[in-house]
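= Protein in question =
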Amino acid sequence: MCSDFFYYDYTQEKQTPTLIPATVFEASFDAETLKNALKDDLDEDAIINVLTNRSNRQRLEIAAEFKKLFGKELISELEDELSGDFKKLMVALMKPPAEFLAKELHNAISGIGTNEKTLVEILCTATNLQINYIKTAYEKKYEKPLAEDLADDTSGSFQRLLVSLLSAKRSEIEKVNEEAVNQDVSDLVAVGLGSKSGDEESIFNTILCTRSYTHLRRVFQQYRQIAQCSVNDVIEEEFSGDVKIGMLAIVYSMEHKSAFFAERLHDAMVGIGTNDRQLIRIIVSRCEVDMFDIKQEYKKRYHKSLEEDITDDTSGYYRKALLSLIED
């Protein structure tokens, strides 16, 4: 499984990671260090120092070397020796990104109820490459296509939106065709506020799920000039429930992806208790992409640093590892 499927995101103008590959790296040395750290006299600091300062690709090399040297799976050793949220974070770091998010999607749709916000967070912000790797990882692990499980757990307009996203048909052509932009703007105006044409869903699905991000930015800009309202305004008025949340997430993450994830991080820590699964998922999946920008947006929106809120809401080695992953 491609371990770097997250680390080029064509929807981002530039990458702003807080975690970069170690410049001095020897997988066998790190494997030895972890083996010693996982003895009876557990050395959590050594584990944090290695795993939160290596890229995902480097961590997978360490795991392969660990198996070769000691005949054991590093993930299994971590699961046996660690506990609580610290264990969950360390294990998450050792998963290839596609496998990790496939598991998160499975958790969101298994059991009683469906976590629609997790589905939206992952699928509405992913690139074609990411979606295809996630689908492959999901079917390999759960022996069933992701689309089938989503169809079993969702319905109606929201289901159709997810199916459109899973097709991974978004254009990646950066050059904007103004004629195509004009046509999309015209189609959106035709199904705008109060139109009741009946074609709103199909037109929005097609445009939001198949057009390139550069194309969409131009469409939204031109639409606002002509209609004197935003595409968000139309979605808010014409749609409801989970499909509205999903469509708004596509627009929001396309225009302000860092702000979108900042909001999700804040949601994970606000109120009583911390949604540690959500916190771990976002930090692990974005620390090698755009966590620096996410931190900037977090401070701007909530007038408090992400580091401060993590310090307030977590503790122990778990807190120390999270802070290490988002350190500039």
